[in-house]
């Protein structure tokens, strides 16, 4: 407005000389750079809560949940599902059974009758010997792994003790003497020393080929399924993170890996058990042939029946089952396997839910910090130099 006649030149509400105004403006703004220096800030709000501590708490809680689920899976695998293993084996080795129990619903009335006639301990028989054989296998694997690179070689070494443990898990308690907890070593040693043919019993060295083949093939198949399942779940987790935002392609949280490891292990176990169920039936019948074992009759749940078979080998056993019992005869007791993994899955889900709820209750609530009234926040000015 300085060029218009009749108007005073005003700067910040005060009359000024046009010449001095232009020079000052030029000196202050056009002949050198503008430097804005913040003044020292003395009045700041109190320290804000540290986000790193809350993140550390979340990581610790998720890690604890993973450890708890792993422990629950271990207990379920070795203890809680043992009754279903007993039912499955009794169905598998009975060639005269007319009820195949391919679905879980047919086993429920049988379980009730067994409890009424033999008590609550009838489905827990042989659990001591099963745990001993598993522990022995782990010890042998650990020792052999330090000498040779061969994995899972204990399958053949513990075969005599596995055979003795199998007898304890299927024999009826009302028609047989209850074995001691260490009898598995005595019976396994006797089975190992029985080199010659004694009646219809198959020597342990003749059982090694089908027994080791079943164990190794099942083990290798489980490794492949576990690797594929792990890879699939890692890719799925990354895709979910992509939809939610950026993520680090190289790092996966420890809690996520624990969850993936747990689920992939369960999937591999389930797939291996289902695929090799017929081969397990054949191997179990060969182990029990000639042992004079009397088992519970699971057609009724109130009587017992002896095992009388005369197979010459694995192929003869397979062919005889197909001829006399049909193809489904290889899957006798499959309903018990379904119940076994159903219980395992439910235990894992329930454990994870309970631990997650406990972790939510234990997680510290974020503190809302209000500014102090005694130290009001002053506006911040900038010095134009």
Automatic annotation (TrEMBL):
Keywords: Membrane, Mitochondrion, Mitochondrion outer membrane, Repeat, Transmembrane, Transmembrane helix, Transport. Its main location: mitochondrion. One of its GO terms (cellular component) is mitochondrial outer membrane. Belongs to the mitochondrial carrier (TC 2.A.29) family. It comes from Aphidius gifuensis (Parasitoid wasp). GO terms for biological process: mitochondrial membrane fission. Residues 15-24 have a biased composition (Polar residues). This is Uncharacterized protein. Solcar repeats lie at residues 259-358. InterPro entries: MCP_dom_sf, MCP_transmembrane, SLC25A46. It is a multi-pass membrane protein. Gene3D superfamilies: Mitochondrial carrier domain. Coiled coil: none annotated. Residues 1-24 are annotated as: Disordered. It is found in: Mitochondrion outer membrane.
